[in-house]
Write a structure and sequence with these properties.
heterodimer; A: alpha+beta; Beta-lactamase; 4 domains; six-stranded mixed sheet; 24 helices; B: mainly alpha; three-stranded antiparallel sheet; 3 strands
């Protein structure tokens, strides 16, 4: 062979070295410099970051009885793109024990809502234990299907629904909100009640588990032996002032009634019982049918989801009279011995204001006037207060009265530790200026003195004002939570430790009023509330209930009101009860308040069991509740429809509708009310 | 002669043996790392591929020992016969004995075991080329004998390409041109031959505009290197111009025309599938679903992810999340390099490449010390085959070469492949033991 081939050997060697060097260079870029970002892709596909949901905080009552804890439930979560590819739906449905139609329907519904690009579709929530058991064994056969574990609430005492509120999965709208940046899709959060107010404390800290998974999404074990994992920190527990037994009794007595009952420990502001009627089973809002039940409860004409104790605005009626008396005493316009000659009505402003008593001397002094609930007396002393000569004119007098009311915690939300509290209404001179064009005097509002007119209070405010009387001049903001995780000085509780001193009314004034209230129960309108061995101070109220419907002021059945505190010398409980459309205060609200006091102070009800039964069984929901509700809903619907119409057609429709409604609907309604309930419609002012 | 006095062990090239053992054991361990689960107890577990590979490894050692003990004269007598028998087995794959595995019909089912005649045929071809070129009557400087020699290599290539649908296996036969080049095949022929091949592949794989630029650059570069001859012989300019023109015509007009008008939609699809590529938009037709997810694309991206995730020092043995949990398809066979890349990182994979490189250079060194041309040519054939396998296989796992399934020598799972390479290397070692002899 010729020599030149020796040369070629060198070329071949160079070739054999050059190409591997190119490969090594490529590896350098790929592995060391990570050109192309493949490392991140590796983490994304093989690493599965599992969020470990902590159990939410447990809620205890005052005696450390658990009233709400958690149960572990599972959601079926699928990756829709994988389900589309190849998937044995029939088999999965067999394991789930449900028809394939139902699965397909639910799947399509969620796909329409979220689209194919969603990674985690919570297909079915809160699976039953048998479904979970069947699925867990065979889960590996379904690519893209996971069982996600989370904790769901359980009310162990079947009470306190309106206090606790409920939790739900975070909505898409909330997810876009910066306020909810902490949350991810699939997280649960408190929607209402304590669950919402103490969300940050109750939710705990989720843990993270880094797991490796294979190409079929099966978990193969921990990543880096779990050194990067963090464990979940359970939510903080809440200890309440609530007395579980009292709460249960209160809720049972409010069943099938519209209204509310609140009991507060005046010394601390801690809420002992808090119930709204109609009561509902709180466990309806936990578990699989939560969504369905929520819609049902929200659409119910009796509005069980309305937190009436803080959102229901009621004219306080005669329960307001002690406050009127306090102001009058403090202003110095009356003395405790001051009497008014009431002959069955108040004529001081021309038009008669009726009084239920006629007998002479029923308002011979403050005590008697309170005990007999004399309307004339309180209209009169209210006028005396705001017309007090030291203010010069009624405008200033009213403003002074307004300040007193503000001090009593009225006219603004007090600051309870559940959300959506309303403030009620305490009118001021600006209000009257706008209504009466600045031309008004104390006669225009004399009925405020007896708790009617423009004054609107929430039951919580009524209960709080009773606390003020019981405490002789101070209150703590009513609140549920005594301690967060055992810490009673938690930052969220600090505002509840502040003592609120009310005006500078003399103790003696409170004593006179309390004495009057004691007389109410001993010998006056509230005898039904008497409890042996306990001196109960109470005040009945029968609030006139008027509503403007379709341009007409309709007088509906009166609300039954009762406020009380006991024992008189060392008050331990203050109660306010309001039962809508049920007539006299002493008929329904009085007994309920009295039974609550007895339960709390004596730990049980011995002799009055039949009364408890009577309260529990009574159904006081007038039929017109449903009619009013359907009218409201229709009006809301029409309003909603009109939003989407052009201006012209809205105008035309409004005109037609107005004339039609005036003629027909109101006539029908007037007829209905008159014949069914004997309620006469009267013209609006 | 002097070598008779030295013992058998002294004449063995132990360096080759050591590197062979190193690569093979790395292979078994790589397959083990893919299949190992924390729950496994013991090493020998039924149905695990690494156990089978270990058994094949043991068989290979025995076979290697037998070859060492063999008379080297036997090796020089069998080439043409083995070539004919090997080709007979290739033909058998078309009969019912042939077994279709993953769309290719390159396997032969002999009842007791399955093997790939195309793999062993490489060995027979290498021997035959070595034998042919050392025949007394053959003069490699003549065109006739050059064509005959090329034919020995190209017949199996064409056959496997056409009837077995195994592009990778077929293209390996091109590696024999490295040996032929060493034996005096004119550079021009190699260049023209590879150009035609590359032209065809490039036209199919590369965007035609890029290709146009590439051709032009290459032509200018060629002219620049030949500028001295250019002064003497003007016709080179015309020749280069003509080649450039043909290449451009081929890629810009002929292929697009054929793919758009002559070939049917499914044929276009098949050609691209064979190359492991997706049909470009310009060649897609209505009614033919070309938008299926491309398996090869997925393989390569998963392979790159696995290798890149290894970083500089790797995740450590048995800690490969990507390779252990089946993210990379075919990771026991064609994509075995990923396991090294992920578990041992840049350091480990570079060392592996360097071992291969040393292996190749050692073979070339061994080749050049042979007295007999047969041994030298055979050694170059082996080096060529190993080189081609290494470059294409590693190249495709890191996205440098098209995905044409060929194994990584000695590492990939597969009995036929391991045994063939073993025999190939041990024959070389045996021939090298008689390097002072003239074998014909």
């Amino acid at each position: 062979m010729a020599d030149f081939t020796q040369n070629r050997s060198i070329f071949i060697r160079i070739f054999f070295v050059a190409i591997p060097v190119v490969i090594i260079l490529r590896l350098l870029f790929l592995q060391v410099f990570d050109v192309g970002g493949y490392k991140e892709a590796a983490i994304n596909q093989a690493l599965y970051v599992k969020k470990i949901y902590p159990p939410r905080g447990i809620v205890y009552d005052r005696d450390s009885v658990v009233i709400m804890n958690n149960v572990v439930v599972y959601d079926l979560v699928v990756d829709p793109r994988k389900v589309r590819a190849k998937f044995d739906t029939t088999y999965l449905c067999k394991l789930l024990n449900m028809p394939v139609d139902e699965f397909d329907k639910q799947f399509k519904r969620l796909i329409n809502k979220y689209g194919w690009q969603t990674k985690n579709l919570h297909l079915f929530k809160n699976l039953t234990p048998s479904q979970v058991a069947a699925l867990q064994e065979n889960l590996y056969e379904f690519e893209g299907v996971e069982l996600i574990e989370h904790s769901e609430r359980k009310f162990t005492y079947d009470c306190g629904g309106s206090i606790m509120g409920y939790i739900n999965e975070i909505s898409d709208k909330q997810l876009k909100d910066e306020k909810y940046a902490y949350y991810e899709k699939g997280d649960y959060l408190g929607i209402n009640g304590l669950e919402k107010y103490y969300e940050e404390e109750l939710r705990g800290n989720p843990g993270v588990q880094y797991l490796l998974r294979d190409v079929k999404q099966r978990i193969q074990g921990p990543y880096k032996n779990g050194t990067m994992d963090s464990s979940a920190v359970p939510g903080a527990s809440l200890q309440l002032y609530l007395d579980a037994e009292l709460q249960k009794l209160t809720e049972s007595m409010l069943a099938n009634k519209l209204g509310s009952a609140v009991a507060i420990d005046p010394k601390t502001g801690g809420i002992l019982a808090y119930a709204n009627g109609p009561t509902y089973d709180p466990n309806l809002l936990t578990g699989a049918d939560k969504g369905k039940n929520l819609v049902k409860l929200n659409n119910d004409a009796t509005k069980p989801m309305l937190n009436r104790a803080i959102q229901g605005l009621y004219p306080p009626g005669s329960t307001f009279k002690p406050l009127t008396a306090l102001v009058a005493l403090d202003e110095g316009v009356i003395t405790p011995g001051y009497g008014y000659a009431c002959g069955g009505g108040y004529y001081g402003c021309g038009r008669r204001v009726g009084c239920t008593h006629r007998g002479g001397g029923h308002a011979a002094n403050l005590g008697l006037a309170v005990a007999n609930s004399c309307n004339s007396y309180f209209c009169h002393i209210f006028r005396l207060s705001i017309d007090a000569p030291k203010y010069g004119n009624v405008h200033k007098g009213l403003q002074q009265w307004h300040r007193y009311m503000n001090d009593f915690g009225l006219g603004h939300p007090i600051g309870i530790d559940i959300p959506n509290e309303k403030g009620g209404n305490i009118p001021d001179s600006n209000y009257f200026n706008s209504v009466y064009n600045k031309n008004w005097n104390s006669c225009n509002m004399s009925i405020i003195g007896m708790g009617q007119g423009e004054v609107l209070l929430t039951p919580l405010q009524m209960a709080n004002s009773v606390c003020i009387i019981a405490n002789k001049g101070y209150y703590y903001i009513p609140h549920f939570v005594k301690a967060v995780n055992g810490d009673s000085n938690h930052v969220k509780l600090q505002k509840y430790h502040q003592k609120h001193q009310v005006a500078n009314i003399a103790d003696s004034a409170y004593w006179y009023v309390a004495a009057g209230m004691e007389a109410v129960v001993r010998a006056g309108t509230g005898k039904i509330a008497r409890i042996p061995d306990i001196t109960v101070c109470g005040k009945t109220g029968t609030a006139q209930n008027e509503r403007i419907i379709g341009g007409k002021l309709i007088k509906l059945q009166n609300h039954s009101m009762f406020v009380a505190f006991a024992p008189m010398q060392d008050p331990k409980i203050a109660v306010a009860v309001c039962i809508e459309n049920s007539g006299y205060g002493a008929t329904w609200a009085g007994p309920i308040a009295s039974l609550m006091i007895e339960q709390y102070l004596k730990d049980s009800i011995v002799k009055r069991k039949p009364l408890v039964k009577k309260m529990q069984d009574a159904k006081i929901i007038p039929n017109y509740t449903y009619i009013l509700d359907s009218i409201e809903k229709r009006m809301a619907l029409e309003k909603d429809m009109m939003k989407n119409m052009s201006k012209d057609s809205v105008l035309r429709l409004t005109r037609i509708k107005d004339s039609m409604r005036r003629e027909t609907e109101n006539a029908m309604m007037a007829y209905y009310f008159e014949h069914k309930y004997g309620i006469k419609l009267k013209r609006t002012r | 002669m002097s070598y008779h006095k030295t013992s058998l062990a002294d004449r063995i090239d132990w360096l080759l043996i050591i590197m062979y053992l190193a690569l093979t054991i790395i292979g078994v361990l790589c397959i083990y790392s893919v299949e190992h689960r924390d729950t496994d107890i013991g090493f020998f577990i039924k149905n695990k591929n690494y156990v089978q590979q270990f058994i094949w490894f043991s068989i290979s050692i025995v076979v290697g020992f037998v070859i060492i003990m063999m008379d080297s004269k036997f090796i020089t007598t069998i080439p043409f016969l083995s070539y004919v028998v090997g080709f007979f087995f290739l033909l058998l794959t078309l009969t019912p004995l042939g077994k279709a595995v993953k769309g290719s019909s390159s396997f032969l089912n002999l009842g007791f075991f399955t093997f790939q005649p195309g793999e062993t045929m490489k060995l027979f071809t290498a021997l035959s080329i070595a034998k042919f070129l050392t025949l007394q009557e053959v003069n490699f400087q003549t065109l006739k004998h050059r064509l005959m020699c090329a034919g020995i290599a190209l017949v199996p290539l064409v056959y496997i390409m056409l009837f077995q649908n195994e592009t990778g296996l077929a293209l390996v036969y091109l590696s024999f041109f490295i040996a032929m080049y060493r034996e005096g095949l004119p550079r021009e022929i190699i260049i023209v031959g590879f150009s035609v091949l590359i032209l065809t592949l490039a036209t199919l794989l590369i965007n035609k505009n890029i290709l146009f630029v590439l051709f032009t650059v290459l032509a200018i570069l060629f002219l620049y290197t030949q500028r001295k001859q250019l002064r003497k012989r003007r016709e080179i300019l015309i020749l280069v111009g003509a080649v450039w023109f043909i290449a451009v015509l081929f890629s810009q007009v002929l292929v697009p025309f054929a793919f758009k008008k002559v070939l049917k939609g499914y044929q276009v699809q098949r050609i691209y599938t064979m190359l492991g590529q997706e049909v470009p938009d310009e060649y897609t037709r209505e009614g033919v679903d070309n938008k299926k997810q491309n398996a090869a694309d997925y393989n390569v991206s998963q392979s790159k992810i696995a290798i890149a995730s290894g970083g500089f020092i790797g995740k450590g043995f048995l800690n490969g999340a990507q390779t252990q949990y089946n993210w990379v398809p075919e990771q026991r066979t064609d994509f075995i390099f990923c396991t090294v890349g992920e578990q041992f990182g840049f350091l480990g994979s570079s060392i592996l490449i360097l071992i291969y490189m040393s292996f190749l250079l050692r073979i070339v060194k061994v080749a050049e010390r042979q007295r007999s041309a047969f041994s030298r040519i055979y050694a170059y054939c082996v080096a060529g085959i190993l080189f081609f396998h290494l470059v294409i296989n590693v190249g495709m796992t890191i996205g440098l070469a098209p995905v044409i399934g060929i194994p990584l020598p000695l590492l990939s799972y597969g009995g036929t492949s391991l045994l063939t390479f073993t025999i190939m290397i041990f024959i070389l070692i045996r021939l090298d033991m008689d390097r002072q002899m003239v074998l014909r």
